[in-house]
Structure formats: structure tokens, C-alpha cells
Amino acid sequence: METVHTQVVWVTVISEWLNLVFKWMLFGERPFWWVGESRLFVKNPPEVQQFPSTCETGPGSPSGHAMVTSAVWWVMVSAVASFLHSRTRSRLLTAVPYLLYVLFLVAVGLSRIFILAHFPHQVIAGTLAGFLLGVALNRTVPEWRPLLFFVQTCTALFLGALLLHSVLEHFGVDLSWSISLAKRWCSQKDWIRMDSTPFSSLTRDCGAVLGLGLAQFWKPGGWPLPWAPRTLCLALSSLALYHINRMPLPTSPPFLFYFLYFIRFTLMPQVVMVFVPGFVHLLTAKNKEE
After folding, report:
1. Distance, CA of 91 to CA of 264 (rounded, Å)
2. Catalytic residue list contains 165
3. Among 276, 230, 218, 267, CA closest to 247
4. Cα separation of 52 and 171, whole Å?
5. Residues 6+ apart with CB under 8 A from 43
């Protein structure tokens, strides 16, 4: 179980970081601003409905939601399928997680198209890229490494993205083009969120890597908990992550937002892997003593 947790974090980070690189280099339009910018519908503009999740500020190709979901869920689905096969030896039951995987990806892709966040080809590209990445990284990502490895990886991700950003800007590429278009064509200005900017995904990835390293540093191997306490850990972790994610962050100045966003995602792996399991372990140990 701990191995799957680690794989999920690594695959999430790598797939989202690569998605950021692809978006910077492919310059994909988003439907909600393309309708107005294309000038194809000046005489008969179509009636389009936007939603709070529509107005993302990054480029649109490939779809990040589709790519990350496809990669991460492949890791989890293959782990569940392997578990079912080892317990039941039933091909039918083993195939169920893969069927649900396909249905879930279709639902995610259709939802991204429906809210005008992506074109169909962007969703397909993201799904295929994520699937290939998930297959390639499954069971090959680093597991238990010293804290310095995670610090170095966090630094490499951050500096690598900054280097690419600087090189593209040096050659005259305006990487803020999508932000200005999103602000211009979003029907509700309060739907523009800083957590959808490219640098937000970068700080999210760096924070998750460092948080994973700290979690493994504080408690290597975790706590050996039976299934009932693990279920309690799942419930408490979900509740804790929900409230951490809901905490409002100041958006001005931007540096403060990105710093606090980094801290938030540094805490999340530690909550799931250290704080909550440690709390549950303490409770169950006390009950056994009594």
C-alpha cells in the first residue's frame, strides 16, 4: 500500500510537470476564448455557457486533467487488478478495474469538453500521453530515497521549468498570452483562479516532491496498521486534505500566493503518510494497552 502511495505521488508530479512543458511549447487554444478570438462567428456568435471551472489560464494542449488522471489512475487500477487476480484468479474480476478506468477517462474527457476548457483533440492527446506515461512509470518510480534526493529533485523541477521559461522568452515567446486571453473572455472575472496558472502547477509539483521526501524522512516505512485503522486513516486523511485545500490563500502579491501554495502541497503528503497514520496508530496502541 505504501508503495502505491509513493507511485501515485511520483506519477502525479512527473505527468503534471511534463504537461506544463508540453503546454508551453504547443500553444493550445481553449474553446472559451477561441470562439471570440477566431472572428469566425462575428455575424452569428454562438451561445456558449461557461462554468466556474471553465476559465483556466494556462494553454490548452494537451489536457492536464486528462493526462494526469490517465497516468495516475493507471497506477491505481493496475494495483487493484493485480490484487484481485492474486486473490481470485478470475479474469472477469481482474478486467473490472480496467473497464471502470476507461469509463472514468471518458467521463473526465467529456466533462472537459462540455465546460469549454478543451477541444476534443486536446483531451485525446492528454489521455494517450498520460496512459503511456503511466505504463512507463508504473513500478519504476523511485521509492525509498534519502531526503537529499527529494530536495535535489524539487530543485531540478523548479530550475528546469524556469530555464525553459527563460529560453522561450529569450526567443520572443510570450508565455503569458493565455492568461490575458482567459481574463478577456471569461464571463465572470472571479472565475479566474491563480491555482490554474502554469506556475501554480509547478509549485504544486515541487511541494509534493519535497513533502514526500519529508514524510519518508520522518517515518521510514510508515506504521504497520491493519485494515480497519487503514480505513480510518483514509477517512481522516480525506477530511484533512479537503479542509487544507479549502483554506483561502492571498493572491497578492503573487509571490506570497505561490509560496503558500508550495507549503500547502508540501504538507499534504505528510498529512497522508505521517500525521494521520501516526495519530491512528497512537489511538489503536492506547486501546490495546487498555
Report:
1. 41
2. no
3. 267
4. 34
5. none
- Total domains in the chain come to 1
End-to-end CA distance of the chain: 29
Clarify whether 118 is annotated catalytic. yes
> 51 near 115, Cβ under 8 Å?
yes
Catalytic: which of 5, 118, 165, 243? 118
pLDDT at site 157: 97
The kind and range of the H/E element at 284 are: helix 276-289
Alpha helices of 56-146 — where are they, by DSSP H? 64-88, 91-114, 120-137
Does the predicted model carry a pTM greater than 0.85?
A: yes
**For 54-93, how does the pLDDT look when each residue is reduced to its tens digit (9 = 90+)?**
999 999 999 999 999 999 999 999 999 998 988 888 889 9
CB within 8 Å of 82: residues ≥ 6 apart: none
Domain range for 59:
2-289
Report d(CA 143, CA 179) in Å as an integer. 36
H or E element at residue 258: helix 254-270
